[in-house]
UniProtKB/TrEMBL annotation, chains A, B:
Gene3D superfamilies in the record: NAD(P)-binding Rossmann-like Domain, ornithine cyclodeaminase, domain 1
Superkingdom assignment: Bacteria
InterPro entries reported in the protein's UniProt record: NAD(P)-bd_dom_sf, ODC_Mu_crystall, ODC_N
Protein name, entry field: Ectoine utilization protein EutC
Family membership noted in the UniProt record: Belongs to the ornithine cyclodeaminase/mu-crystallin family.
Gene Ontology cellular component annotations, sorted alphabetically: cytoplasm
Lineage: Bacteria, Pseudomonadati, Pseudomonadota, Alphaproteobacteria, Hyphomicrobiales
Length: 330, 330
């Protein structure tokens, strides 16, 4: 049955979609919907490509109240940088939730994932960080290190950013980008313990497989968002930190038990066995978040299909408003 | 990273891809690869849309030796016919198996699934039907009833087709289409027992949830391909028939145990508990197929991601040869 399909390229999407409060709000609404229990979010389909150091993940979610649902395909080919290509690519496909017809092809090469992942960090900061954040710290020096700070600054307008990374040159470049973009002070910090000590909000954005943030560094009035772990075996936060924090929050418990910091804490035998709160439950007011500014809170973001459906719907709307993209019939 | 993506619409694909021996051969090669044990084929991602009588399935497979891998998204919105739309839609996305970049978008609305499903029926007939088939019977009157006969005729050039369906008008229309397309005798048969009795090859193509082909109807020199069951609860073949046949063959044992005729036989407690042969193992010569023309054989096709990767690769190649499609950069 021939019907119109909107095709949006990466440059078109980058012009139409900003990492702004509207994007943060739409991702927040997806988390709130997750808490309603009415979202359908199947387990991630994951396929390893043998001999290629590569993996492909497919995520989706149906959210009541959204006109469409997205299917996101994220190939990660980790030897690509050797031939001058980025590791992460992929696209999102937006389907009508009423007819199943393809409505839009978002050829974003991972851009929308970057946006929705950073937006989730801002949602976590909005609901869990102390009310006043003067210094934010970020661990890791990649795209998400930058975007997490850009997003979080919109909900906690901190005055200073500290950047830690294994590579001092990359940390300096990241700090420089953040300072330029936000117009605030940002510098590399070589000592991760000092970075945490001086920050009220810390975001970890690395693919670490051994903790880079120690439990002993936790201090009153700290919120940590760990967004690097999205696969079994990854681990950024000392398992003991999860037990010691006043509040640990998962984006999706069933995923964090397998892929997140929670998996590492369970594996280390230090988790208390209770079912943690989900970020959406705190957004929706169904569970209690931070109750005073001196608490220590940790949020574990593994990435959800609900965010993909939210950002794809948002991107299509923004593109239509801007008159962007090409329509094809098929 | 901007790169070229070939976009093919349904009309372009229909012009470029025929259900011919080349298509059958490429699907056969995918089955042979499955038998090698080196194919990576994750379980199907399946999502129900609540309140919409709808389901979305995502299939994929990596096949060594194929340059790309397909991800297929198949939405089934079963109330669509009420508003004049087909129930089944969807698309395939072809990715480079070397870089993970999107190489082609095949906006086929299910056409390529139709082709690869019918081609699998021909592979089953080629390897399992008696060497001479004079009459073929088909149960069901939809698109696959027609395509299964078109495909099977290329490997067993039968002289006559019998069509059974619950709706006599539809059965007559289906028989008329088959006669016109193949240039042979085809007629509706109201008695399914007689259809089976007079056929050497029977293909069942229905969404039945209770058997439409009875074990008592099996006769020497019969091959049955059941391709209608692709979901839990569907069942076309009397469970006793699987136990009684000389040979039962699955397209993929792990799927047929859940979704296929095998699931019904196991559920009914009549399966012998042995691991059945897979079609690919017979194609590859790793297991024995039909050994004489008087045997009774049954093949259970639930549909595999390997077929999708094969047909998507084939379609891209055919389109490139024909100069079809549009290239976009993203």
């Amino acid at each position: 049955m021939p019907h119109d399909i909107l095709v949006l390229t990466e440059p078109e999407l980058k012009r139409a979609v900003a990492l702004d409060l509207d994007a943060i709000d739409v991702v927040e609404s997806a988390f709130a919907a997750l808490a309603s229990g009415k979202v359908v979010m199947p387990p991630i389909l994951s396929m390893e490509i043998p001999g290629a150091n590569a993996e492909v993940d497919v995520k989706t979610a149906y959210i009541p109240g959204f006109d469409g649902f997205a299917i996101k395909v994220s190939p990660g080919f980790f030897d690509n940088p050797r031939i001058g290509l980025p590791s992460l690519n992929g696209l999102m496909i937006l389907f009508s939730a009423k007819t199943g017809l393809v409505e839009a092809l978002l050829l974003d090469n991972g851009f929308l994932t970057d946006v929705r992942t950073a937006a989730a960090g801002a949602v976590a900061a909005r609901h869990l960080a102390p009310s006043v954040v003067t210094t934010a710290g970020v661990m890791g020096t990649g795209v998400q290190a930058r975007l997490q700070m850009f997003a979080a600054h919109q909900v906690r307008p901190f005055e200073r950013v500290l950047v830690w990374g294994r590579d001092a040159t990359k940390a300096a470049a990241c700090a420089s980008d953040i300072a330029g973009h936000l117009g605030i002070d940002a510098r590399a910090e070589t000592d991760p313990a000092r970075l945490v000590a001086e920050s009220q909000l810390v975001v970890t954005t690395t693919p670490a497989r051994a903790p880079i943030l120690k439990a002993d560094w936790l201090h009153p009035g700290l919120h940590v968002t760990a967004m690097g772990s999205d696969q079994e075996g990854k681990n950024e936060i000392d398992p003991a930190a999860l037990a010691r924090a006043d509040l640990y929050v998962a984006d999706r418990v069933s995923q964090c038990e397998k892929l997140g910091e929670l998996a590492a804490a369970i594996g280390a035998g230090v988790w208390n066995g209770k079912t943690p709160a989900e970020l959406g439950e705190i957004v929706a007011g169904a569970k209690t978040g931070r109750t005073d500014d001196s608490q220590v809170t940790i949020c574990d973001l593994t990435g959800t299909g609900a965010q993909d459906t939210a950002i794809a719907t948002f991107a299509r709307q923004q593109a239509l408003t801007a008159g962007a993209g090409t329509t094809i019939q098929s």
